[in-house]
Structures are given as C-alpha cells and as structure tokens.
Write a structure and sequence with these properties.
The complex is a heterodimer.
Chain A lengths: L5 E10 L2 E11 L4 E5 L6 H9 L6 E6 L2 E2 L5 H6 L2 E4 L11 H13 L13 H13 L15 H14 L4 E5 L7 H14 L5 E4 L3 H7 L2 E6 L2 E6 L1 H6 L1 H8 L4
Parallel strand pairs in A: 3-8, 3-9, 6-7, 7-8
Antiparallel strand pairs in A: 1-2, 1-4, 4-5, 9-10
Chain B lengths: L3 H22 L2 H26 L8 H19 L3 E4 L2 E4 L4 H23 L4 H20 L10 E2 L14 H24 L1 H11 L1 H6 L4 H27 L1 E2 L6 H14 L6 H19 L3 H15 L3 H7 L7
Antiparallel strand pairs in B: 1-2, 3-4
Helix pairs in contact in B: 1-2, 1-6, 2-6, 2-9, 2-10, 2-11, 3-4, 3-9, 4-9, 6-7, 7-9, 10-11, 10-13, 11-12
The chains are: A alpha/beta, B mainly alpha.
Chain lengths: 249, 327
C-alpha cells in the first residue's frame, strides 16, 4: 500500500449543510485503473476537483508520489505529474488540435516564459506534441481548428494533451462521455494499455467500460465511499446493489 | 480573400507613402495626422496584448497613456524651466532627451501596471472592467488636482524633445521615429504570440482550466501580459505628448481608455495589425468627418456597431474572411 502513486486520506468537503465529500480515502497503485462510480450527485466531481487542486478540502490529505500536495494548486500538481481530463472538454477551441497538444508540451517543459522563438519551431516541443497526437490517432486532424473537430475527436484530444505531460498518474473524468459505441471501445482498448505507463483514476458512467477496464472500483454514494473492491466483489456486494447498481444489475 | 500579412504590409506601405507625399506636396499637417494615427496605433497595440491575446478587457489603459504623457511632461518641464525635481530628497534634473523620457515612461508604466494588475486580476469579467476603470479615474482626478504640473489646465512644453542624430522638429523625422517604434512593438507582439508565452496566454484566455491542467498559472501569465501591455501604451503616451507638446489630465480620461478598446475592436481583436487599421480609420474619420460635422462620432458608432454585430473579426476579419484571430 505504501507504493501508491496517488493517495487520498480522510478527505472532507462540505458546502453549507451538504456534505459533498465525507471521509473519503482511496489510493491509486502503479499499473492499475481504479474506477470511481456512483449515482449523480454522489460527489464524484467534487472529489476530482479536490484531487486535482481546483477545490480545497475542509480536511484530509492528498498525496502524490508520497508528497503532500493538499496545499498546492492545480498547476503545481500538474507539474508534479498529475494529468487530468475533464468531464466537459476544456480545450483552446480557437486553436488547432496541434496547438492544444503543443500547449501541453509547453506546460510539461516548465518554461512558458519564453517570449522569443516560435513554439511551433521548437523541435523538442513539436516532437512531444506530435507523439501525443499520434498515439490517440489524431495526426490527420492536427491542423484543424479544435472547434471544428467532432465531439469524439475532442475527447481524444483531451487525452492527448494529458499524455504530453508524461504524468505519473492520470485522473480522467468521464472520458467516454458522449462517445459512440465504436469510439468508446477504441478508448477502452487505449486506456487498458495506458495504465501500464501510469495508473488511472477513472470516473465513468459507462458501466461496460468500467467493468472491462477497472482493476478496482470504489463506489461513492452521498459523498462516502461505501465499498472498494475488485469488479467481482463490487458486482457481488449487496450494499452496492441497493445503493447504486439496482437489483437487476 | 486577402492574407492578413498582406494587409499589414499594405498598411505599413501606406503609412510610409502618405507622409512622404505630404512632405513633397508641402502639407505638414497631413504628416501630423498620420503621426497621430501611428501613435494611437502603438497605444492600441499595447492594449491588444492584454485584450486580444490575454482576454483582459481593461478600461483603464489611459492610466499608462497618461503616465507616459506626464513622464514626458514633467521631465521636459523641469528641463525647460531649469529646475530640479525633488524625488524623496534627491535632486534630479529634468531632460529633453527622448530615449531617457521613453525609458522613464516605460518603466513607470510597467511598475504601475504590475501593481494595478496584482490588484485587479483577482477579478474577471465586468468586475475587472470596473476595477481598471476605477484606477483610471483615480489617476485622472489626481492629475486634475496636481497643481505643481498644471492641474486641470495641463502642462505645455514649448519645444519638442530631442533624439540624438535627428531633428525632431521636422515633422517627417518625428514621424519616422514613431513609425519605427510602432513597427518594433508589432514585431515584438508577433514574436511573443508565436512563442511559448503567447501560446500559453492565448490558451489561458480560451480555457483557464486547460492551462492549469498542464501546469500553467493563468494569473501569472495575465499579469506579465498586462505589464508589457501597459509599458507599450505608456511609451505611446510619451510620444503623444511630444506630438502635441502638451500634457493634460484628459490623457488619463476613461473616454481615452474606451477609444483604445474601440480601435482594437474595429481593427480586429487579437489581430496583429488590428490596432493599425483601427487607429488609421479613427483618425481619418475624426479628421474628414470631424471637419464636416461635430457629430462624426455617430458614424464611428455605426461602424463599431456593425463590426460587433456582423464582423467579430473586425475589418481585418472582413478582409481575410476569417473570424478568429489566427495568423
């Protein structure tokens, strides 16, 4: 357990009387996909926001590769190796697909203050950006304006931008959202490979994808983790069935 | 459709040809008009870095324009009256040397932009607009009551400041100086925009969350852009004061801040040559229509309205057929 890449312990967050996160502890170990599932309003997005540094918890700790990052903001956590994708695509829509991955490469380089010399002519940045685009199969649309890409392509571009960071851990918030069956299957296959490079904390509604991908699953209900276990354990858990999966699952 | 850089080259060619023609034809006032357009373009080019690339709608850029103006006015005032300034017990003489004046204008503008940026960039949207406006009004009313330097009446400078090797009293020479500075500012903007900093700043405008997620801090990027932006507008202020040989609190007025925004929008927000197109059209309208009627602002308003409603890319967007600010 001590070798967890990402660890969350005793996290609390309340908005007024609403306890959005209540004593949540979980960890992400090398090589695994740890899925977080839960009904709408279970506090998944709030939890992700605290892990990624956009929301400060009331109590508890977030550790990234053993280092306490609870007090750090999102940019610092990204620099320390946390690569995330968003539930709703967050991309520079006016820029080309290539410029979006190039941005990731600039972030990864830690040198955004260079005001001279075109980023698009920097061999190191370009190589990193192109490699990330190629991995998700978007090389053909590199020059296209992001707003002109299909929804599915944008979801892949989100993943590509995260790849440019060479992160130690991925946090993916519903990467399958809005993808068709084919796109979903392709991304599922891709993530199954990707986890060998860096483990993935996966929030996902697509249960087929979760059951196909996850090494472990945590079930979040009303801000609490009611169960953590393997796919088989979660499927078998009566509490989870009652709370979430429904009796026909 | 025309490529944006050709529009830029055509604009610059026109800005060289027109004053040369005016000089040959013996019409020095035309040179003054074009100089005015070039200086306003420089001021708007400064704003374009904050507004166009950074997405910061600053309604307080007159602060920097005014600081540049007063930097020139105060230094030249002491030089022409052979008195020394008292800077916290330190006796400093004035100067009529443009390079020194520019350095002071740029430095003070940058420092003030840093302070204003630090305080206002916590806010966004309409609150940022109001916060920058508030700073503009503070400087405006301070200048009005600053009796040591003319207060409401402003500060006349009798002879234009000098530049080593040039005779700045000759209109075409002063014009060339202003044009060179405008070209330098546009060159810097172009390089900056393509550089990692520009890419990051531009992305932070479109999606701050995205920038943060790749380890970039939008607040710091914006502050740097705001400082550079203020410094360039400050330089334009010093030139503007030198053109008129007069400094007054109106350089700090919120109307001037608004006009700079209008120039940028007319040309095309975030377009490299947008401020040049906007400033030339503005000065042309001001001169030709202003000569016909006092109500020339109505025409300007109509153009602005047309652009905001139907051509978000500004005049350059219309000509290039591209809405977005892409090179």
């Amino acid at each position: 357990m001590s070798d967890a890449i990402l660890r969350v312990s005793g996290l609390h967050k309340a908005f007024g009387a609403v306890r959005a996160t209540e004593d949540v502890s979980l960890d992400l170990r090398p090589g695994e996909i740890h899925a977080i599932i839960g009904p709408n309003g279970a506090g998944k997005s709030t939890l992700i926001a605290q892990i990624c540094g956009t929301l400060r918890p009331d109590a508890g700790q977030v550790l990234l590769t053993g280092r306490d990052v609870t007090g750090l903001g999102a940019p610092q956590r990204a620099a320390l190796g946390l690569g995330r994708t968003f539930q709703v695509s967050q991309l520079a829509m006016e820029d080309s697909a290539f410029e979006n991955v190039l941005l990731g490469a600039v972030g990864a380089s830690g040198r955004p203050w260079r005001v001279w010399g075109a980023a698009a002519r920097d061999a190191g940045l370009v190589a990193r950006a192109e490699a990330a685009l190629a991995r998700v199969g978007l090389s053909d649309v590199a020059a296209m304006r992001t707003s002109a890409l299909s929804h599915g392509q944008r979801r892949l571009l989100e993943v590509a931008v995260a790849l440019t960071l060479d992160p130690r851990a991925f946090v993916m918030d519903e990467p399958m959202a809005g993808l068709g069956a084919e796109g979903s299957a392709r991304l599922t296959a891709f993530l199954a490979e990707l986890k060998r490079e860096a483990p993935i904390l996966l929030v996902e509604h697509d249960m087929d994808a979760v059951f196909a991908l996850a090494d472990r699953i945590s079930v979040l209900v009303y801000g609490r983790v009611i169960a953590t276990g393997t796919v088989a354990e979660i499927r078998a858990s009566a509490a989870v069935r009652d709370a979430y999966l429904g009796h026909d699952a | 459709m025309i490529e944006e850089r050709w529009i830029g080259w055509a604009m610059l060619a026109g800005l060289v040809a027109l004053p040369l023609w005016a000089m040959a034809a013996g019409e020095p006032f035309t040179i003054t008009l074009v100089t005015r357009a070039v200086i306003l373009a420089l001021a708007a080019a400064g704003l374009n870095i904050a507004l166009g690339i950074g997405g910061l709608v600053s309604l307080g850029h007159a602060v920097f324009f005014g600081i540049g103006g007063y930097a020139m006015g105060i230094l030249a005032h002491h030089a022409q009256s052979y008195t020394a300034m008292n800077l916290i017990g330190l006796e400093v003489p004035g100067t009529k040397l443009m390079p020194v004046i520019w350095l002071v204008a740029v430095t003070v503008s940058a420092v003030v932009a840093w302070v204003i940026g630090k305080l206002t960039l916590r806010t966004s949207g309409v609150y940022f607009i109001m916060a920058t406006l508030a700073f503009g009004q503070m400087f405006y009313y301070f200048a009005i009551s600053w009796s040591a330097y003319g207060g409401e009446d402003g500060l006349p400078i009798y002879v234009r400041n000098s530049f080593p090797g040039l005779n700045t009293l000759v209109p075409i020479q002063f014009f060339a100086l202003c044009l060179a500075l405008l070209c330098a500012a546009l060159f810097i903007t172009a390089r900056l925009r393509a550089a990692p900093f520009g890419l990051a700043l531009n992305a932070a405008r479109q999606s701050p969350e995205r920038a943060r997620a790749v380890g970039l801090d939008p607040a710091r990027l914006r502050l740097a852009a705001f400082v550079l932006s203020g410094a360039i507008t400050g330089l334009a202020g010093a030139l503007f004061a030198d053109l008129n040989r007069f400094v007054s609190p109106t350089m700090f007025s919120w109307q001037l801040s608004g006009e700079l925004i209008v120039l940028v929008i007319i040309g095309g927000v975030g377009r490299l040559y947008g401020p040049v197109v906007g400033a030339c059209l503005f000065v042309a309208l001001e001169h030709w229509l202003g000569g016909l009627t006092d109500y020339w602002h109505v025409a300007l308003g109509a153009i602005l309205l047309g652009i905001v409603l139907f051509a978000r890319g500004g005049l350059i967007g219309l000509l290039t057929g591209k809405e977005g600010a892409h090179v």
